Amino acid sequence: MNPDDPLLRILACPLDKGPLHLVKPDGPKAPEALYNPRLHRRYPVVDGIPQLLPSSGEQVSDEEHEVILKRMAR
Known about the structure:
The chain is α+β, with helices and mostly antiparallel strands. The protein contains two helices and five strands, in the order αβββββα.
């Protein structure tokens, strides 16, 4: 996905219906993801398609949350 993709403006977290943020991979094997900083949940993007079922999301630790927030600020 592209950070300027208009789709990002309408995608919402399936749990709290709030906005999601695109998180680019931090390594060659890390997947692209959409992140909800309010719930500390990450949803994978597989082959350019966001996986937004509640069961697709994964909870991230507080430490990982801080790392993601720093990456989002760049």
